[in-house]
Amino acid sequence: MPLANPVRQADAAGPGPDRAVTDPISLVTDLIADAEKEPDSDGIQAVVVAVAGGRAKSRQIAAAPAMQLAVLTDGRPQAPRVIGDLAIELRKAGALTLSPPACAECGKHLRTLQRRGQDWY
After folding, report:
1. Which residue ranges does the record annotate as region Disordered (predicted)?
2. Does the N terminus or the C terminus of the chain have fewer Cβ atoms within 10 A?
3. C-alpha to C-alpha distance for 62 and 79, rounded to whole angstroms
4. What is the pTM (predicted TM-score) of this model?
5. pLDDT tens, 5-64?
6. Distance in angstroms (rounded) separating the CA atoms of residues 121 and 104
7. Mean pLDDT within 68-91
8. Do 72 and 83 contact (CB within 8 A), yes or no?
9. Which of 77, 62, 80, 61 is nearest to 109 (CA)?
């Protein structure tokens, strides 16, 4: 169920919407570092920067974990593709708490990602 404004939802979770817009890389790094012990914050930030690319993509990443960190811990296929890509790269970097994306049909953890509609396969 998509939220009308996921950046605004960040208010209820703690970090303000301004940080998701002004410093999305740091916001995502902090949220992931709170849930994940490996890799360290610098390693997490390196992965986030590598996956995030430009400003719009980094804000999209910041909006998803800010509205619900469970997006990265349960592997549900309803998250944006960039979140699936981030989860895969974090797992490659040694993250153990975060779940890789899961197939929408069978639930198998995926090492690569394809989207069909809103689901991962």
Report:
1. 1-21
2. N
3. 12
4. 0.74
5. 334 343 444 544 578 888 999 988 998 888 888 888 899 999 999 998 888 888 888 887
6. 6
7. 79
8. yes
9. 77
Provide the residue ranges of all domains of the chain, joining segments of one domain with +: 6-120
Cα–Cα distance measured from residue 32 to residue 4, given in angstroms and rounded to the nearest whole number:
23
Q: Decide: residue 100, CB within 10 A, 0-12 exposed, 13-18 middle, 19+ buried.
A: buried
- One-letter identity of residue 83: I
pLDDT score for 6: 39
